[in-house]
Design brief:
The complex is a heterotrimer of chains A (about 425), B (about 575) and C (about 180). By secondary structure, chain A is an alpha/beta fold. Chain A has helices at about 20-25, 30-40, 45-55, 70, 100-105, 105-120, 135-150, 180-190, 215-220, 225-235, 270-275, 310-315, 335-350, 355-370, 375-390, 400-410, 415-420, and strands at about 85-90, 125-130, 165-170, 210-215, 240, 240-245, 245-250, 260-265, 265, 285-290, 300, 305-310, 325-330. Chain A contains 17 helices and 13 strands. In chain A, the strands form 4 sheets. Chain A has a 5-stranded mixed beta sheet with strand order 8-7-13-10-11, with helices on both faces. Chain A has a 4-stranded parallel beta sheet with strand order 3-2-1-4, with helices on both faces. In chain A, strands 5-6 form a two-stranded antiparallel ribbon. In chain A, helix 3 crosses helix 10 (about 225-235) and helix 15 (about 375-390) runs antiparallel to helix 16 (about 400-410). Chain A is globular, with a radius of gyration of 22 Å. Chain B is of the alpha+beta class and about 575 residues long. The longest helix of chain B is centred in the first third of the chain and has 16 residues, at about 100-115. Chain C folds into 2 domains: about 5-70, Orthogonal Bundle (Arc Repressor Mutant, subunit A), CATH 1.10.10; about 80-170, Glutaredoxin. In chain C, about 45% of the residues lie in helices and about 10% in strands. In chain C, strand 3 and strand 4 form a beta hairpin. The chains are: A alpha/beta (about 425), B alpha+beta (about 575), C alpha+beta (about 180). Chains in contact: A-B, A-C, B-C. Chains A and C meet through helix 5, strand 3, strand 7, strand 8 and strand 13 of A and helix 2, helix 4, helix 5 and helix 8 of C. Bound molecules: flavin mononucleotide, iron/sulfur cluster (SF4) (2 copies) and FE2/S2 (inorganic) cluster (2 copies). Flavin mononucleotide binds near residues 66, 93 and 398 of chain A. Chain B: It holds the Pfam family NADH-G_4Fe-4S_3.
């Protein structure tokens, strides 16, 4: 757990006006990491870069928390096929609103990170896929890409090294499932965002059948920090086994919602009460969804001593997810809340596979019934049954993400759900 | 050789195999919907779940690791696997629903999901009786329904195209139809529209599903969502009788099944033959069923005065034919064989006139250049052009046919609408005595003086050589006035055939055509004019041919049946307009 | 509108070429060219989908399938302003439904409907990635209006009626004091 966070100075989004402009970024040592690599290709061979990033243990910020360098090492040896890096800026997990800050306030840090990743994996083309609703941020980001091209960081013969890397920005049109990595690949190929079956994994067969790695925007923004300061330094920030700076998105019933940058492993209570200014109207905390809708809700009494890192959250019964924290006060109606969550997954299921297509709709309909006071106790057990019927049975993890909140919210707030149910017809004579 | 262990049995395998296909090839079962052996594997129905794992091998010794009881250690995969997309690897362990309760449970769970939004209108659904969903539910499904909320409503009775109707509520989103249009027919006319549980297959709004192969989607749709507009509500599967046959509407010779009820052909579906048509056939070939029932020549007919044809007796037909032959020299006859009839018919027909002293029959291919595609539709409009060549009929073009007619007094045509297809005009035949041996009424039979009704492909066993030189054969599927299902061992019996009688309204004598196989008619004719000509069955003709014709050496009906037709060692002849 | 009248201008075609150049296949340009078309016509009804398909030389069914999958494409004509009110998770718990219902009352329509004068369409949408600034809405696939109150919504409607769209609002991290100061200057 991190204790000395009060003195922490943001690194991903430092407090530097106009940092989104390339001159300002360069003034503050921008593109230094990338230049260092290019200037010392022996010290910084592609393998060495990958190993350094692997040693740093940048846990994927897109939700799954996978070690970025390790993922890069899955790319096959270069052959005649083109190689791609697909950057995931779909940011659609409810409760999550952090990547847009990188596009807006420090786009070059991300571009530099993506370039280093591309170098390490011998990638030819970087696609940056941004959700369609973020069109204003797309425009802001596109300007940054243009600047990077003008300065010779992107395109052909980068900084005279003979290396060619293109970066193309594109955007979606409204579909949460295009944040799932292979759904995103399908969307990039111009199709309906139907996630692909794995294997083959994208590193083997990704975009147009070619080797592809997918990383989240924030994940890649961490890369230059590692190259500049070393894996050991990076390891020293944050919690054991979950380190580095994290963009915490705090929303819900707090006085000062917003995105905050602090080390991984922040005490949950400090984040809620110090950083985000405590619960609105001096109400009591009821529960926390720690990392986006898919992560299991934790009751206030489960939060004691818990910190925002994967081990601590796992022990508490949840997950880190995207670190999009939704804070819920004592007045929150958990039945309404859970119904709305299932409505989201029902709306966003791509519909390819049976358990998810049918299950998400059924979950929502039964919860609506309960919300309207027409449910019965047996419906709660039906809902729990359905979650086991969905979990682990589908092409992508959306079905799991839909099942978990149902299981855990009902189990952790069972009384509240039972109270909303009709008294059984056979009860009391 | 690499090994796998399925339901505790050991099997060896070679090459790339998906578990489901391997299990099916063993004759075992795992329920599935979206998988189709000839298309890509989307693994979207999630029905074919099995429990799978891997025996752990010591990397250094290559030996299996054992536990304290001396049993091999298994590393189970963390999740249930869809067997259709599970690639076999050495030492893999698979448990199907037969040995794993978890697999059984997973399959039941998926079926429950598939059924919640399904209308369950089996009593009025065309697919009932041959519906994988109905069958799998019966075998592997949950008992009752726990679904007590509102079902999703979707469009019903949508005319997707001229031949295919969609009931989107029955659709289980397996995407077989969409993949067919993308990967097999390549018209790309279908897509899934919308998202989530609102998904269903559709064309673009301005387009219609007029894919020339559209009806294959009806065959592969695992539920009753896609039905044949034409066949809707016409018959129940269990009332029909299924007989293997060959598509005679073009030169490809797609393998098909004829579905009959009470001696009417009600539908035609493709029969799997990986060498010819895989699982598919063109829509056109399916529409041919009409020509087996309707517009048939039944009973011989004769032209008495100028334009009036009237039915006559078989005796009189034989007599008339004989008198004409007796009144003319062989060189006054123009004898035409045809690519539209089988090898046996052409052979017997040609031999008959050879015996009379006539030279080999002529034929002209029936080609429409540019009509075909790269798939199963051919320029060749006839099923047996190469068969005519095989038995050395004299190939000629339209002019050749015309000049043969001009120099003849008598024209004898085997089953070829030469007038209808523009080779001859009715006028060309006006001053000649014209005899047609025909299955169907046509411009040619109309212009004929004597018409002998003969059996069609649905009524006899006979073989056809396709454009690629493959010889394949038909079976009798419908009775004529002179055949009897119960006596002919080659004919299959459906429920109605077995239990219907002439006195109930299931059976209708009208559906039996008054016709004979060509050879049988020629037997009678030969007898009348004292010609030594006698074939009791097409099989006898084939045996004779296989003795005499080199490329047919060693080939028999049995071989054709076992090997789904036999590729002949003949030069692949480009079938073009001569 | 008949299909004959539909066509991209040379400028638009040039833009489409630039989009195509980013990808190895025409198909990959589908989403972006649908956007170009929607910016031009305000919707991608079937005839516009066909224009996209024909321009990219792709099966019409493909474009139709894609257009119907993604929610930001308008498959029907909408009001001049489409108000996408987020009622998802964070917005739900911060009064997103109050904002939605207030709008419905003010404009006299329900979510999914368009006002008679063709000015406004209201839609209820999923999380827009502005959860810390809840409740919020997006105007016609464009600018975000954050931290809404009923009063702010009334003002927004009033402005939109006058053709005045809200301006892009930079949500600076609270830790970034210097940036905030600079922004407020
Ligand atoms: C349903 C679903 C939605 C997802 N949405 C996003 C998203 O919006 N943004 C994102 O970066 N990752 C998302 N992910 C995670 C990605 O699949 C993938 O793990 C991630 O982009 C990899 O990048 P990382 O390793 O750098 O985190 C989603 C996953 C699932 C199953
Ligand atoms: S789990 Fe759901 S979202 Fe994922 S592929 Fe299957 S249907 Fe689509
Ligand atoms: S219509 Fe039939 S074949 Fe097509 S997706 Fe639906 S169930 Fe599958
Ligand atoms: S048959 Fe395997 S998932 Fe459909
Ligand atoms: S929940 Fe409304 S913007 Fe995220």
């Amino acid at each position: 757990m991190v204790e000395d966070w009060k003195s922490y100075e943001p690194l991903i989004i430092p407090d530097i006006p106009n940092l989104h402009r390339i001159e300002v970024y360069e003034e503050h040592d921008g593109y230094r990491a990338f230049r260092r690599i290019l200037d010392n290709p022996e010290e910084w061979s592609r393998t060495n870069v990958t190993n350094e990033v692997k040693a740093a243990n940048i846990r994927g910020r897109g939700g799954a928390g996978f070690n970025a360098g390790l993922k890069w090492s899955f790319m096959p040896q270069p052959d005649e096929r083109p190689r791609y890096l697909a950057c995931n800026g779909d940011e659609s997990e409810p409760g999550t609103f952090k990547d847009r800050n990188i596009f807006e306030f420090n786009p070059h840090l991300f571009i530099e990170g993506a370039l280093i990743a591309a170098y390490a994996m011998s990638v030819d083309v970087i696609y940056v896929y941004i959700r369609g609703e973020y069109i204003d941020w797309v425009r802001i980001f596109e300007k940054a890409v243009e600047e990077a091209y003008e300065k010779g960081y992107l395109g052909e013969d980068i900084l005279g090294t003979g290396i060619d890397i293109e970066m193309y920005t594109t955007y979606g049109a409204g579909a949460y499932i295009c944040g799932e990595e292979t759904g995103m690949l399908e969307s990039l190929e111009g199709k309906r965002g139907y996630p692909r079956i794995k294997p083959p994994f994208p590193a083997q067969k990704g975009l147009w059948g070619n080797p592809t790695t997918i990383n989240n925007i924030e994940t890649l923004a961490n890369v230059p920090l590692v190259i500049n300061n070393g894996a050991d330094w990076y390891q020293s920030i944050g919690a054991e086994d979950h380190n580095g700076p994290v963009l915490y998105g705090i929303s819900g019933h707090v006085n000062k919602p917003g995105v905050y940058e602090y080390p991984a492993g922040m005490p949950v209570e400090d984040l809620i009460y110090d950083v985000a200014g405590g619960i609105r109207g001096n109400k009591e905390l009821k529960a926390l969804i720690p990392g986006g809708t898919s992560t299991p809700v934790l009751r206030a009494d489960q939060l004691e001593g818990v910190s925002m890192d994967s081990n601590s959250l796992r022990d508490a019964g949840s997950m880190m997810g995207t670190a999009g924290m939704v804070v819920l006060d004592e007045d929150t109606d958990m039945v309404d809340l859970l119904w709305r969550i299932t409505h989201f997954f029902h709306h966003e299921s791509c519909g390819q596979c049976t358990p998810c297509r049918e299950g998400t709709g059924w979950l929502e309909k039964v919860l609506l019934k309960i919300k309207n006071g027409e449910g019965e106790i047996k419906d709660l057990d039906l809902l729990l049954d359905m979650t086991t019927q969905m979990e682990g049975r589908t092409i992508c993890a959306l079905a799991d993400a839909a099942a978990w909140p149902v299981r855990h919210t009902i189990n952790r707030f069972r009384d509240e759900f039972e109270e909303r149910c009709k008294k059984s017809v056979h009860a009391v004579a | 050789m690499p090994e796998v262990f399925i339901d505790n049995e050991r099997y060896e395998f070679e090459g790339d195999y998906m578990a489901l296909q391997f299990i099916l090839d063993l004759g075992k079962e795992v329920p599935f919907f979206c998988y189709h052996p000839s298309m890509s594997i989307p693994a979207n129905c999630r029905q074919c779940m099995v429990k799978a794992g891997q025996y752990i091998k010591d990397e250094e010794t290559g030996e299996y690791e054992l536990d304290e009881n001396g049993e091999r250690k298994i590393r189970w995969f963390p999740k249930m696997q869809t067997s259709c997309a599970l690639k076999l690897s050495d030492g893999m362990v698979i448990q199907t629903q037969e040995t794993s309760e978890e697999a059984e449970r997973a399959q039941k769970d998926t079926l429950e999901f598939l059924l919640i939004n399904h209308p369950l209108d089996c009593p009025i659904c065309d697919q009932a009786g041959e519906c994988p969903l109905q069958i799998q539910t019966y075998k592997y499904g949950p008992e009752g329904s726990r679904f007590e909320v509102k079902k999703v409503h979707k469009p019903k009775r949508v005319q997707l195209g001229p031949r295919v109707t969609l009931d989107a509520e029955r659709c289980i989103n397996c995407t077989r139809c969409v993949r067919f249009a993308e990967e097999i027919s390549e018209t790309n006319q279908l897509t899934i529209v919308s998202r989530g549980d609102k998904n269903y297959p559709m064309t673009a709004p301005s387009e219609t599903f007029d894919d020339p192969y559209s009806l294959n989607t009806v065959d592969i749709c695992p539920v009753g969502a896609l039905t044949s507009t034409d066949f809707r509500f016409k018959a129940r599967v269990w009332e029909m009788n299924q007989t293997p046959s060959i598509d005679i509407t073009n030169g490809k010779g797609c393998n098909i099944d004829l579905w009959t009820r009470d001696n009417e052909v009600l539908r035609i579906t493709p029969r799997h033959n990986p060498e010819v048509n895989d699982y598919w056939m063109p829509d056109e070939g399916r529409e041919a069923f009409e020509q087996f029932n309707k517009n048939r020549v039944s009973r011989p007919s004769i032209t008495l005065d100028e334009n009036n044809q009237s039915n006559t007796s078989w005796n009189n037909a034989v007599e008339t034919f004989a008198e004409i032959l007796e009144a003319h020299d062989p060189d006054q006859l123009a004898v035409f064989g045809t690519p539209h009839a089988s090898v046996e018919e052409n052979y017997a027909f040609n031999k008959f006139f050879n015996l009379l002293g006539a030279s080999n029959a002529r034929f002209t291919p029936h080609i429409i250049p540019g009509y075909g595609d790269d798939f199963l539709i051919t320029d060749d409009q006839a099923p047996n052009t190469n068969g005519c060549r095989l038995i050395n009929l004299e190939e000629t073009d339209d002019t050749g046919i015309q000049s043969a007619v001009t120099s003849a007094k008598v024209v004898i045509i085997l089953s070829d609408d030469l007038v209808g297809r523009g080779v001859l005009s009715a006028d060309d035949l006006a001053d000649r005595y014209t005899i047609s041996l025909a299955t169907n009424q046509s411009d040619t039979t109309e212009a004929s003086d004597l018409v002998i009704p003969i059996t069609c492909v649905a009524e006899h066993a006979a073989s056809y050589v396709n454009i690629d030189g493959r010889i394949q054969r038909s079976f009798p599927a419908k009775e004529t006035k002179y055949t009897n299902r119960r006596l002919n061992l080659e004919m299959s019996e459906g429920r109605l055939d077995r239990y219907g009688t002439n006195f109930d309204n299931w059976v209708n004598e009208e559906h039996k055509i008054d016709c004979l196989p060509v050879w049988e008619f020629l037997n009678h004719l030969g007898e009348r004019i004292g010609l030594e000509f006698q074939y009791d069955h097409s099989r006898a003709i084939f045996d004779e041919m296989s003795d005499r014709i080199d490329p047919l050496k060693g080939i028999s009906y049995e071989r054709m049946d076992e090997e789904l037709g036999v590729q002949l060692p003949i030069e692949q002849q480009e079938v073009t307009q001569a | 509108m008949t299909e004959q009248e539909l066509a991209f201008t040379q400028d638009e075609l040039d833009e489409i070429e630039r989009i195509k150049a980013k990808f190895p296949t025409n198909k990959a340009a589908t989403l972006r060219v649908l956007w170009v078309a929607q910016e031009k016509y305000g919707h991608v009804k079937p005839e516009v989908q066909n224009l996209v398909a024909d321009t990219l030389d792709l099966p019409r069914s493909h474009v139709h399938g894609v257009a119907s999958f993604y929610t930001q494409y308008y498959k029907e004509e909408t009001g001049t302003y489409v108000l996408d009110v987020c009622t998802c998770l964070s917005c739900q718990v911060c009064g997103g439904y109050d904002i939605l219902h207030h709008l419905e009352d003010e404009l006299g329509i329900k979510a999914g409907e368009t006002t008679e004068d063709g000015m406004f369409t209201i839609q209820e949408v999923e999380c827009l990635g502005a959860c810390g600034y809840a409740p919020m809405l997006q105007v016609t696939n464009g600018v975000y209006a954050n931290n809404l109150t009923k009063e702010k919504v009334d003002k927004l409607i009033e402005n939109l009626r006058k053709g005045k769209k809200p301006e892009f609002e930079s949500m600076v991290m609270r830790q970034n004091e210097k940036r905030k100061k600079e922004l407020s200057q």
